[in-house]
TrEMBL record:
Family recorded in the similarity comment: Belongs to the HyuE racemase family.
Gene Ontology MF annotations: amino-acid racemase activity
Protein's name according to its UniProt entry: Hydrogenase expression protein HupH
Lineage, opening ranks: Bacteria, Pseudomonadati, Pseudomonadota, Alphaproteobacteria, Hyphomicrobiales
InterPro entries: Asp/Glu/hydantoin_racemase (IPR015942), Asp/Glu_race (IPR001920), Hydantoin_racemase-like (IPR052186), Iso_Racemase_Enz_sf (IPR053714)
Superkingdom of this protein's organism: Bacteria
Length: 256
């Protein structure tokens, strides 16, 4: 049985974590693979600034540092920011899959251009960073926001009647006005809207979280992982220091 660790980028309760686990229902996976969802123990309240982005990178590195030692065969990161992905690839030999870049690259398997559909404008720098790293700015038709502040723990529960039509209207504008041939949901927190949009739009809609689960399964079946030429291992690993900082940060957050 292959085991995949899914790192959820916020500290949360079991009930809140369950809303993240619901993403598994959107993809049919083999009986020989299982997914374990684990929230970070310390991190930002949201991803709204460079301050938050730095904390997010560390929190996910801290959460996945021992994944290989703990017997996991792959890691999926449950945020379109791909926070901590590069750092984890430098310390792990098992596949580490982030939904941001993989959703964009998959979109180009399905069409010539894509748009990213997001909840609010404060997320836009995250996508701009990944687009720049991949050299795909010209392939991104637009990044459209509906101007609704996201809820990282309750997701879209109770907001469906308000949020879903707004997402549909914005997505249709991406297609009609911007020329998008594929739509990417801009966050794994938006996964509950995927079925609604996919059945109402004329172009493919990528649900980034479930995509990473399938890609992790595929990488394991093909015995593939990231290149050490791209992600070299550290010459002087500081794993004990990372654990200590994470533990101290979690204690400080608990006492706050």
């Amino acid at each position: 049985m292959k085991r995949v660790l899914v790192i959820v980028p916020f500290a949360m309760s079991e009930e809140e974590l369950g809303r993240r686990k619901e993403q598994l229902k959107a993809v049919k996976l083999g009986a020989d693979i299982e997914f374990h969802f684990q929230p970070v123990r310390v991190g930002p309240a949201n991803y709204t600034s460079q301050h938050d982005f730095t904390l997010a990178d560390f929190s996910i590195l801290d959460a996945g540092l021992d994944a290989e030692k703990d017997g996991f065969d792959a890691v999926c990161i449950d945020t379109m920011s791909d926070s901590g992905m590069s750092a984890l690839r430098s310390v792990l030999t098992i596949p580490v899959i982030g939904p941001g870049r993989h959703a964009m690259l998959t979109a180009l398997m399905l069409g010539e251009t894509f748009s990213i559909l997001v909840m609010w404008d404060r997320w836009k720098p995250l996508y701009a960073k990944t687009l720049g790293e991949l050299g795909l700015r010209e392939k991104c038709a637009s990044i459209r926001s509906i101007g609704v502040r996201p809820d990282n723990k309750n997701l879209l529960v109770g907001k469906e009647d308000d949020v879903f039509p707004k997402l549909l209207e914005a997505a249709q504008s991406c297609i009609d006005e911007d020329g998008a041939e594929v739509i990417i949901l801009g966050s794994t927190t938006m996964h509950q809207a995927h079925a609604y949009l996919a059945t109402r739009l004329s172009v493919p809609v990528i649900n980034p979280g479930p995509l990473t689960y399938r890609l992790a399964e595929t990488a394991l079946k093909l015995n593939l992982s990231h290149s050490r030429a791209t992600y070299p291992a550290p010459l002087v690993p500081k794993t004990d220091m990372i654990r200590a900082i994470g533990e101290a940060g979690a204690a400080a957050a608990k006492g706050a």
